[in-house]
Amino acid sequence: MQQSKLISISTQKLKFIPYTEEVVETYHKWMQDPEILYLTGSEPLSLEEEYKNQESWLNDPLKHTFIIKNDAMMIGDVNLFFHQYLDDDEAEINVMIGNKNARRQGFAEEAIKMMMSFGLQQYKKTKYIAKIKDSNEGSIKLFQKVGYKEIKKLPQFEEIHLQMIIDAPLIEYIKY
Predict the structure, then answer these.
(1) pLDDT tens digits for 146-165?
(2) Which of 18, 99, 115, 135 has the largest count of CB atoms under 10 Å?
(3) For residue 37, what is the DSSP state?
């Protein structure tokens, strides 16, 4: 396992903690919500399967997941995926605010910026792709607000792909 998977990152509003077995039960509760399952393109898992999934993700060099916390409360997760079909400087990013009481408070926007900064510093990634259900207008608007531009529509998968390329002026914009 990469040492970077066990670090925590903090700002004034948020803290990223590693996706460890201590957080699986709360995460599992979120992933029982049909809306969250649909929007994340996930299948429902048993708690036992969720624990196995957590261990797999923690050890997978092509994935980096953080749990997002606000004060002492878990509110969601944020991920980078390093798919083999992507360029060396590119990663897929996604964010989920699983705690519905924490939505629409700017946490997802800050989490995206924090994760892009982390991806730039830890992995030297300068291109980010967000794959979003085309019916998820809130998430599409969120990524566009951060600066992502639409690059592809995949109606057969009900998906839209947005991309952001980090250049020198944007590095300061996302730095934490």
Answers:
(1) 999 999 999 999 999 999 99
(2) 115
(3) H
